[in-house]
Fold this sequence. Notes:
Elements: H1 2-18, H2 37-40, H3 45-54, H4 74-88, H5 99-114, H6 121-124, H7 134-151
Helix pairs in contact: 3-7, 5-7
Amino acid sequence: MKIAKRILLVFVVIAVxxxxxxxxxxxxxxxxxxxxxxxAHPAPAPVKTLLEVGCYDCHSNxxxxxxxxxxxxxxxxxxxxxxxxxxxxxxxxLASLTPKAQGKKLNEMIDTIETRQMPLKSYTxxxxxxxxxxxxxxxxxxxxxDVRDKVAPDSE
Length: 156
């Protein structure tokens, strides 16, 4: 029994110690610039909200962190997830890409949203407002297609 208590104590000490090793948060102190999708191409309020709740947390320079992000190793997992999301698509810098590259990224967005690959199921478990109805997906895709057709008309 004494060994079990020591092992438990070691695990508790490690768990507490991990709380002091925190990843850097993806929070920009500056307002979105002209390179941001929603600044370069203003969206109707409902579509803007959809993008903010369903895309911007993982695909922009500003993440709204849930309460559990304060606990490690969940915070590390979320930081890695956001880094991967931004590497794939960063909506804060989308408008700085060439028209051809913007068209490609917008086509990828349209495809992943239409096929309901995004937002990820793991994200929607804790962000219920990111579960989109068919009508919301239609509105979001129409906006993205409109933007794509403006910036890269030949990329369809």
